[in-house]
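re: ur question from yesterday

yeah so i grabbed the chain u mentioned. its 255 aa long if i counted rite. heres the sequnce exactly as i have it in my notes:
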Amino acid sequence: MVTCGQTVYEPSFEYQHGVLKSILQLELFKNITTSDLASLTNKLKDLLHVIENLNSTTEALKATKPTGGSTYTRWGKTTCPEGDSVMVYDGWVGGSSYSNSGGGSNQLCLPKDPKWPTFYNNIIDHKSSVYGTEYEIGGEHQNHEVPCAVCWIPRSSNFMLPGRNECYDGWKLEYRGILVAEHNLHPRTEYVCLDERIGRSNESSSNNDNGNLFYIVEARCGSLPCETYKNGRELSCAVCSYSPFANTQTIQPYA
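ran it thru and got these structure tokens back, copy pasting raw so excuse formatting
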């Protein structure tokens, strides 16, 4: 009851009912909010426990040496693709000099931390040599040294697919690139798949030291069908690993 001068005001039943209803709603909301907060707190604790277990499992897997699977070289990069690949080591590409007629014909991924044989000396006797590899592809990478990374994957088979940047069904794309080799007028070398996201190591320089060289490979039609392999067109490539559940109908992303 409220008194104002000589007039007495008494709240109506509807007003009192409304006030009581509001008070009850506030109490109910308070109880529900407290209950929800406690539930969310418990769920958060459970999630943190799951994350802790996953971190422990990840560290244990890192400490475990891989078994089975296979390895491949990622030419032109210092890392392996994201996902389930593991880097064995990174280094620099090396091979025979473009000016030598002999030596090895395959490309090497030389590690950055060599271990020398017990009978070594530092005398150049011109028997056989390995040189660093430079890009001869023009642009910002011209004359820079080519890096590489050897990658392990938990799949038992992989291969380099020349002429395509997508793998066939049942094969997983590890990376795609451009086919490169030594110049036509130089001694023959191995064809390798240079990653299309061409990279350089931090130690790379643009000095024109030559040595082993990477040139982009072009198609020459005639014996190759001209309607399929366009004359003078650069060839792509892909490194594919066996995975029967892979779907390669679309180009697969990688890093």
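noticed a couple things. Confidence is low (pLDDT under 50) at residues 248-253. also The chain has one helix and twelve strands.
anyway ttyl
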